[in-house]
Amino acid sequence: MLMTLTVMDGLLKDGGKLGFVITQSLFKTSGAGQGFRRFRSPQGGGKPIPLAVVHVDDMVNLNPFEGASNRTAVMVLEKGKPTKYPVPYTVWRKGAVALRPDTRSRFTYESTLEEVQAATERLRFSAEPVDPNDPTSPWLTARPKALRAVRKILGKSDYEAHEGINTGGANAVYWVEPVLKRPDGLVVVRNLTEGAKIKVDEVTEPLEPDLLYPLLRGRDVQRWRAQPSAWVLMVQDPVKRRGIDEKELQTRYPRTYGYLKRFERTLRERAAFKRYFTRPERGGKVIETGPFYSMFDVGDYTFARWKVVWPNIASKLSAAVISESNGKVIVPQHIVTLVACESEGEAHYICALINSLCANFAARAYSQEGGKSFGDPHILEHIRIPRYDSSNAVHRRLAQLSQAAHEACRGATDCAPLLREIEAEIDRQAAQLWGLSDGELREIQDSLAELGA
């Protein structure tokens, strides 16, 4: 993007306009997007020249480049003027005509502009920074009235979200399935090697059961229900934030230590291990600061009895409450976002708000749909969830409704019909908590319907 802005200095005079194809991610993400959204030319005789965003066309849904799955947008900038918000932001989407089998041929990579326009719909949105005090923050994009409504939902939450446990790519070492329980109390397990990023041998060994915990994978989490499908070997000290001391593991859990020693070379070669648990000393010697089997993203929150969880790569927020399985707390993997809670009521209160249309619309408005930023832990830096108060009638009602939704989905293959009334009431209660009027709630509902959500 620096090259594009530099070229503008050489080609355009003040008031000149430049249109170019760009990745839509630059409007919705931090990092490189943050600097780009300053909208200033780096040249200009030592003084940056302001650039005004005239218009953006969001074509992510159209996927206009054959053989490429990039997130396409078209942007027009004007030289010499500052950007003024809100910015016109048009979302192109495949319309009903394009989705009909008998007319799908009208919208191909060889189609004319007129044919594409006939087969698509264009949503007239506006865009502005999610943080009104930081013009470089990710953009909110929504219909103008919905944009005003969503401001009531935004703000820093009273809760902190975290990623689940991270093995540094060595899932095939830590993820296991039980084979049988021996009379002496040891559990015979087999490590799960299928589809593993780091390839290791499949082994079957008896381990001490103390460090085995039910594992919740991303695919195990659905809206209002989550059920672990495997087990994970948890050898991390959540206080020291490194692996359990090697002497302690060897003394108390010799079978587990012996199992991990099988994979010692593989575990030491993990990029994350080298980054976080080694340091160079004089003479080029490398010192390890944690046992070779140390894990990542493990803290006290990992072992909270009550947690709210949702996948962090998704097209919508789909949360559930988890607690224990087989007498042990459930541990989510790293592609699952979690919030540790002190009580069942608090967990269900948060879950109801996360699953509400209001929160889903807010997340969709400022983040990249289908990207990691949509459901990652940073979501609670933007969606304002007040601390649970059991004396607050709205808080209690939201918790009750989440419990009812979980109950409706327990054992049901299709719980959608049972959920309609419950979720509608959740949306009304969430709107009340965030101070939304009936009209503002309808605007959010209509906006989501327009987006096909």
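[next item in queue]
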Amino acid sequence: MKEGRAISASPALELRGVRKQLGGRWVVDGVDVAVSPGEMLCILGPSGCGKTTTLRMVGGFVAPDAGGITIDGEDVVGLGPERRPTAMVFQHYGLWPHMNVLRNITFGLRARGVPRAGAVAQAREMLDLVGLVHLEGSMPTALSGGEQQRVALARALVIRPRILLMDEPLSNLDAQLRLRVREELVEIQNRTGVTMVFVTHDQDEALSIAHRVAVMRAGRLEQVAAPATVYRDPANTFVASFVGRVNLLAAGIRGAEVVLADGSTVGYVERGGAGPNGSGSVEVAVRPEEVILDGDGGSGAEARLIRRVPRGHFDEALVEIGSTRLRAYLQPTATSGERVRVRFGRILVYSAGEQPAPV
């Protein structure tokens, strides 16, 4: 995960109170965020949360109903896509099927009046950047999904945008190709220094490539922070459950113990989260890697190992404490059905009764 960057005094992109109503509801409802020059911001959220609409408003494809959007301090609301210093890579790439790779990339430059020789030279420079010089004469239908994605990226970069917008550009790739292409994307962003806003519903993708992650729900940003912060200190139970796996428990806190619904108690080592510090009903979030399992002779609450699921380099374990079931990312030596002992490492505590907003 990348380290977060502090927002500079002069952000490359800023959204202030941006709102958009579609179909009688606010799909974007008061978004405030600033993006530093050279930063990659990932907007992460479930389908229908407003992330693509937000991106399209930045690109000029959709007009906001309220709020302001500035790029390098200049108000761009009211400007069409062709008049904004932005470029967009869409989910379905949108390559011209009747043009070869080189002509696809030069198209935007030629439309802006760049002479053919200059456009070709710049296009070949971008092809070299994405590693596809050898395919400049190929037609899009002859390319793999990863190659098409890189052509679309080169076509966007060749016009030298100040802001590059990417709408789930890796969603059509298989798992292994997606991993490779997103690594290439990070390298390209580091080499060009272009400011990027990247929309995705894949939390692993966001955590692995972003300088900061903006978690969105029902048109609002729930948290904007560095990936490590979003994962380790989520602002609420929605963020905790959407970013990574988590055990969510309606519980109480008594000293250094979590009191489960049936009265069972589990000791814990460290506490985080945004909940009250005193006793009473709370919601406790425990990452699976913080569920510590020992053999039956060890310390901790008595539990039963229900099932182990091999996940390659680790086992996912389902354990039961009284009537509560938990998932753990450890490799216990016990077999299914045997008794184990459970302790918690770091827990996250939130006020009880938080209900996820509809999406």
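[queue empty]
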